[in-house]
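Margin note from the TA: students keep mixing up input and output lines. Inputs are the sequences; the output is the structure of the whole complex. Example:
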Amino acid sequence: MTLLAILPIHGLALFLQAGISGWPTFGWAKPPFLLAAALYAALRYDRLTAGWSAVLAGLLQDTLGFVPLGVSSFGFLALAVGVYLLRPSLVRESFLTLLLLTAVGAALLAAWTWGLLRWGAVEEIPPFQVSPALLALKIAGQAILTPVAVFPIHLLSRWLERAICPAEEWPA
Amino acid sequence: MLSRVHVYGLVLILGILVLFNLPIESARSLKSIVRGLMAPYQSLWSSGRGSRQGNSLPASHEGEAHMAFRLEALERENQALRELLGLKKRIGEASVACRVIARDGASGWWRTVRIDRGSRAGLREGQPVLAAGGVAGLVQEVGLYTAEVLLLSDPAFHVSVRCPRTEALGIVRGGGAEARAGLLEALWPVRPPEFLYADRHLELREGDELVTSGLGGLFPPGLPVGRVRRIGLAPGGLYQEGLVEPWAPLDRLDFVLVLLTAPEEREEAP
């Protein structure tokens, strides 16, 4: 049943992330809808669900751009594992927890992707010309835009898991 | 003995490694499938833009004002299509009109737009993309039903240009960050496309028009690119360089025209 709750959220996150334009002032940063969906699963569900949810969200993110497949999946999975390990010391139901984790995660992911594209030998993508200054702007922009992504994802995920899953299957 | 958790972890990591090492063609096919599935919804989102803008009016402005607003949106769309049609007739090459359905990929690392036509409509990588005013970009990745266009505003985009008034040749490259003295580098504003490597002995001035030169083969000669906004000697004094104001409205593209003629066919044409 958790599958039925997670898949529509990933679909919606994909649609929103693909449909919204980047913010030029902040290095064309976009609200990290897919990351928010992956980290929500890492906070609320069992480790298997958290894992495949992160890999799927990362894969979907990579399919919509020039970034080679697997780059975001790896980053999302690493972040999901980190969040899963931190869970015992977090207030898992709180909107603020997801907000903070997503903002930090989006910054780390931007730095990871930038490093890989800048120094990795990726031949099949257009030349990658993002300066460290623009990366700093992008990270700042993603932190500012994170609430835009986290609010609908958190709200809809909570509503869906209660609408679809029977009460005994609700995440603890 | 490995526990269940370790096995799941290994399977996920192996899956990612497989993704990393997929042959380029397979990776593109996978991307094409997801983009194809998204395309109908994005087209709906895109085509409803005008009417949504109309719907966002406050209740007090409904009725005639609402209708006038929607008519204005339709008028703008009509005008863009007319200009595109005019451009198509003037160029006289095989081309296909496409609607822009998304911008900036999923993470915004490149300045791109996604269009609602793909290889089924004859699109191939490297084909020139024009908008109402002139050159808008280049087809970068093609799926069955959609394609990604690298815009003129991306620093990875380069096109060889000519100034018809002075016959000066040069390169137009997408913009990066514009240097401002006394301002922290991270706060520099986004720079418009640049005009580079122009002969320093030719007298170029602000307002000069730039068109494609045809060198390099991807773009046919004579397509409008933009006008020179600022010009001066490059550091070192070997060339002139400046900024370019593109004719194509890159931040609000609704429709574009993709030229289908291959460079070799263009060369063979009389």
